Amino acid sequence: MNETRGEAVLVSVPARAEFLHVVRTVVASVAARHDLTVDAIEDLRIAVDEACAQLLRARGTEVVVEVCAIEDGIETICRTDAEVSMWPPEELPRSLAAQVLRGLTDSVAWELSASGPSVRFGKNGIRATRPAEGGGRPA
Q1: What pLDDT digit, counting tens, does each position of 87-123 carry?
Q2: DSSP 57
Q3: Which of 44-58, 60-74, 121-135 is predicted with the least confidence, judged by mean pLDDT?
Q4: Is the predicted pLDDT of residue 61 greater than 80, yes or no?
Q5: Distance CA 115, CA 94 (A)
Q6: Could you tell me which residues come within 8 angstroms of residue 4 by beta carbon, excluding any fewer than 6 positions away?
Q7: Helix (H, G, I), strand (E, B) or coil at 78
Q8: What mean pLDDT value characterizes the chain?
Q9: How far apart are the C-alpha atoms of 29 and 41, rounded to whole Å?
Q10: How many C-alpha atoms does 73 have within 13 Å on its Cβ side?
Q11: What is the model's pLDDT at position 49?
């Protein structure tokens, strides 16, 4: 994916499953503003849900999601402030969750930094077509 980045939208929620709907809505909204198709938006909603579900297993106090339009599509980074010695867990790369993430996105990476574990994924631009001015109907 091309690294030309637009402004990022950050959302931070408590690391509890009942708050993930907020994250899904924000990611879908950013993707819709950048004209992704309905299918691509739904793929991103499911992908962010899977990524955050894996991060909840690390038992941090918050989940932070950064979503950014890039030249080729949308890049999303989900992270938590959990203290873990290893990320991803040994079984994660072969899990159903990892298969779902790889199937729904164009790139996925599990990363570990001093601030905690994260999942970065991108969806290449599958742009929706807009009707021509005047509703796209012939005159």
Answers
A1: 999 998 899 999 999 999 999 999 999 999 999 999 9
A2: T
A3: 121-135
A4: yes
A5: 25
A6: 70, 71
A7: strand
A8: 88
A9: 8
A10: 18
A11: 95
Which residues face 128 on adjacent strands? Answer: none
Find tokens 């499911």 and name the residue. Answer: 46
- Distances from the Cα of 68 to the Cαs of 7, 72, 97, 136, 138, in angstroms? 6, 11, 23, 30, 36
- Whole-model pTM: value is 0.85
Q: 10 Å Cβ neighbour count for 6?
A: 13
Q: State how far the Cα of 41 lies from the Cα of 43, in Å rounded to an integer.
A: 5
136: left (phi over 0), alpha (psi -120 to 50) or beta: left
What are the structure tokens assigned to 123, written together?
């969806």
Give the Cα separation of 84 and 133 in Å (integer). Answer: 53
DSSP-assigned beta bridge partners for residue 10:
66
∠ CA 45-59-65, rounded to 5°: 35
d(CA 46, CA 18): 15
